[in-house]
Specification:
Elements lengths: L4 E3 L2 H8 L7 H5 L3 H4 L2 E8 L3 E9 L6 E4 L6 H8 L6 E6 L2 H7 L3 E14 L14 E4 L4 H11 L8 H5 L2 E6 L2 E12 L4 E9 L8 H16 L4 E7 L3 H10 L1 E14 L1
C-alpha cells in the first residue's frame, strides 16, 4: 500500500506515534474518545502493517488544523492524495518547508511562523519564590474564572474547557485573583505523554519569575502522578524569554516546525 489510507485504527496510530512522543504528542492526545471523532488520520504504509508517515486533520468546528510531520519521502504522496479532499482553509503545522511549497500549489500561505518543540530532559524544579505557597490545582469548577483570565492575559491562546477535566492545570493566586496559569494541551497517561500549553502570566506580574514558578509547579504535579511521564511543549522560536524559562527547568529543543494558515486560491 503505497498511497494514502485513512484509518481509525487506534492501535496502529498509537504504535506509530510512540516512536516520537514529542513530535506526535497531539496525535496521541487526540486518541482520547473526547477528541477522536474530531480527527481524521491518514497514513502511508510499507506493506500491510507498518506506517511510514501519518497526517492528522483536527476539526473542532471552525477552521481545522492539519498536522503534517514528515518522517519519510512518502509524506509527499500522502499530501498529494489528500489535497483534493482538504477544506478551503486550514491551519497547518509542518516540519519541512517543502511541505508548505507543496501546499502552495493550491493554497496561499498566510503568516508562517517558526516554532520549536521542547522535551523535558532533566527536571530542575523552581520553588524558591515568595509566591510558592500560592500555587493551587484547578479543575472544572474553575472554568469560568480561567476563561476570563485567558481573555485578559493570553487572548490568542488555544482554550477548550474540556482540557480542565482531561488534563492538569495549576494557578498562582494572589489576593484571591489568578495571576498565572500553566496547563496541558495533551495529557495521555496511557501513552505517558503530556504536552504543556496555555502558560500565561498576568501582565502586571511578568518578569518576576512567576512563569518559571507556575510551569515548574505543573511539571511537579505531572511527575508526582507518573515519574516516567514524557513532558513536552511548543514555543515560538523567537520567544527567547519563554525558551530561557523552559531551559532553566530542564527542557531541551527536540524539533523545529512551522505553523501557518492556508487558504485556497
Amino acid at each position: 500500500m503505497a498511497g494514502l489510507v485513512f484509518t481509525h485504527d487506534k492501535t496502529r496510530i498509537r504504535r506509530f506515534c510512540l516512536r516520537d512522543k514529542i513530535l506526535f504528542g497531539y496525535h496521541l492526545g487526540d486518541l482520547n474518545d473526547i477528541y477522536f471523532d474530531r480527527c481524521q488520520y491518514g497514513a502511508t504504509y510499507a506493506g500491510e502493517r507498518h506506517m511510514q508517515d501519518l497526517g492528522m486533520m483536527y476539526d473542532p468546528g471552525g477552521i481545522p488544523t492539519w498536522l503534517l510531520f514528515q518522517r519519510t519521502e512518502h509524506m509527499r504522496t500522502l499530501i498529494d492524495e489528500w489535497l483534493p479532499l482538504a477544506p478551503p482553509e486550514f491551519y497547518c503545522h509542518y516540519n519541512d518547508p517543502a511541505i508548505a511549497a507543496q501546499l502552495e500549489a493550491t493554497y496561499v500561505c498566510h503568516s508562517p511562523g517558526r516554532y520549536l518543540k521542547m522535551g523535558l530532559d532533566d527536571f530542575r524544579p523552581s520553588a524558591d519564590h515568595p509566591f510558592a505557597a500560592n500555587v493551587e490545582r484547578l479543575n472544572g469548577e474553575h472554568a469560568e474564572e480561567l476563561t476570563e483570565f485567558y481573555g485578559l492575559a493570553f487572548p490568542s491562546s488555544y482554550w477548550d474547557v474540556s482540557l480542565l477535566d482531561v488534563g492538569r492545570f495549576v494557578a498562582i493566586r494572589v489576593n484571591d485573583r489568578i495571576i498565572a496559569v500553566a496547563g496541558t494541551h495533551v495529557f495521555a497517561p496511557d501513552e505517558q505523554i503530556a504536552m504543556l500549553g496555555g502558560i500565561a502570566v498576568d501582565p502586571g506580574y511578568r518578569d518576576d519569575g512567576i512563569g518559571t514558578l507556575v510551569t515548574s509547579a505543573l511539571v511537579s504535579v505531572i511527575r508526582e502522578d507518573d515519574p516516567e511521564m514524557t513532558v513536552g511543549l511548543n514555543v515560538k522560536a523567537d520567544n527567547q524569554p519563554a525558551i530561557r524559562v523552559y531551559a532553566k527547568l530542564g527542557f531541551g529543543v527536540t524539533h523545529e516546525y512551522w505553523e501557518a494558515r492556508f487558504a485556497r486560491t
